[in-house]
Design goal:
This protein has about 375 residues and is an alpha/beta fold. The protein folds into two domains: about 190 residues, Rossmann fold (3-Layer(aba) Sandwich); about 160 residues, Rossmann fold, CATH 3.40.50.2000. Helix content is about 40%, strand content about 20%. The protein is built from 14 helices and 15 strands. Strands 3-2-1-6-7-8-9 form a seven-stranded parallel sheet, with helices on both faces. A six-stranded parallel sheet has the order 12-11-10-13-14-15, with helices on both faces.
Amino acid sequence: MKILFISNIPTPYRHYFFEELNKKIDIKVAYLSKTELGRNWDYNKICNPKYSLFLETKQFVYKRLSFYIAKNYKQIIDEYNPSIIIMAGSWNYPSTMQLIFNKKYRKDIKVGFWSEGNFIDETYSKNYFLKKLKKTVYNSFDFFLTPGKESDKLVNHYAKNKNIIRLTNVAVPQYYNPKNRDLTKPLEICIISRLMERKNVFGYIKAVKGLLLENKIKINILGDGIQKDEIKKYINKQNLKNINLLGEVEPNCVKDYIIESDILCLPSFRDPYPLTLIEAMFLSKPLLVSQTVGSVPEVIHNNGLIFNPNSSKEMYDRTLEYLSFDSKKMHELAENSQSIGKTKFEPSVVIQNLVNDLKKVQLETNN
């Protein structure tokens, strides 16, 4: 079995997955570009040349989003001769449509779509033309890979009765046993996020300002973005001394910040299936998560609290609720978090299940 993945750019959160999958089956990963706007990763560190290559593409940008037209699709496909092709990225890339609308020339190859979007923030369904186009694109795929229930809803909305294979996000398995919370100190909250409106970090800071001023909580924020200066100005103006804007942190140091925290918070308005939550669960951290995060059905089960990101009161109340928990309750939440992480997101199990499911797809092709 030979699998060809076609993705937009190399990313650190996919590198580990491809490295582990490559140990199980023969894969090739063809990227459309080395980088995009706002993505500052060194592709040399997250792109293994043993199985990776870059397509010849024409890139153009619209509203800070990159789109691609690939020049040598057929050449790469014919040279590698895969059993299965899996598209990753956005359904509306010209390169996505370019592949599926020309796939008839190799009818022996099954084509799947790795869909990480979720139905919570779906907007195209309100636009007749885009809805029609999206249905056409989705129904052109033979199967889908999805990380969770909200993504399943999105697929079924546009392409009913398609084969859906579960592929939860894969994080490097680093484990840490629960630690007892010191109730004499402020509740230490870790937020790992880009600083932009969609991530709602600024909104959360404003919502819990009173708790910061009362020295009941402390927030460490790992990440950078266009709102950084605005947030920094607000922090100084309000004299919020219990917030640390740490900027971009080296990946190998992120684990330490999570371990030292009491909880991990993700207040996003939109966030499909963030890897950060899985990493925090492996490290035994209770969660405080926006209800519009796509993976809530998979990650929250007696190990955290959820809130409406549009409600300052709910963000404040749920944070205050954590302050009411004693050490025993916090320890229970932490244990539950790691247990869910190991049960649902253990990489070796996730990857082996994927390999088994792809073998079934290959058998269907051969038959």
